[in-house]
Amino acid sequence: MTKKSFSFLILTVAGVLVFGMGLCMCLLPEWNAFGPGVVVTALGLLALLVIGLIRWLMAGRPVPQIDWKVVGKAAYGVISALVLGTGMCMVLVFDGLMIPGIIVGIAGILMLLGLIPLLGGLR
């Protein structure tokens, strides 16, 4: 392992630790630190993005161009997974939301099935 790779490994681990600590601050109610947790999480994510961009540029590659079709497909996939997860939470966590949760979960599954023709196409 080269010194450059090792230094990027250390920086990436530090960024992941900051990101994870921010998520813990947000999600653990015992810590009572949601507001600062959002800031720490955003800083960790920003650090990881900057580290990745620096690594990309040091490898001699040009700055990546944003393909908005790929961004849209990824956003659709994330939204679909969130809809499915919301339906699961409604069924498993909240009382009295079994039927609406099943309906929302089925909608999420159908949205995720819509990714197949969107990404790979049908032959």
Distance between the termini: 44 Å
The multimeric state of the shown protein is single chain
The percentage of residues in β strands lies in under 5%
Given as residue ranges, the uncertain stretches (5+ residues, pLDDT < 50) are none
Structural domain tally = 2
Averaged pLDDT: 92
Can you summarize this structure?
With 123 residues, the chain is an all-alpha fold.
List keywords for this structure.
123 residues, 2 domains, 5 helices, 78% helix, flat
Overall description:
The protein has 123 residues and is mainly α. The chain has two domains: 3-58; 68-119. The chain is 78% helix and 0% strand. It has five helices and no strands. The chain is flat and about 55 Å long. The model has no long low-confidence stretch (mean pLDDT 92).
How would you summarize the topology of this molecule?
Blueprint: H1 3-27, H2 34-58, H3 68-92, H4 98-113, H5 115-119
Helix pairs in contact: 1-2, 3-4
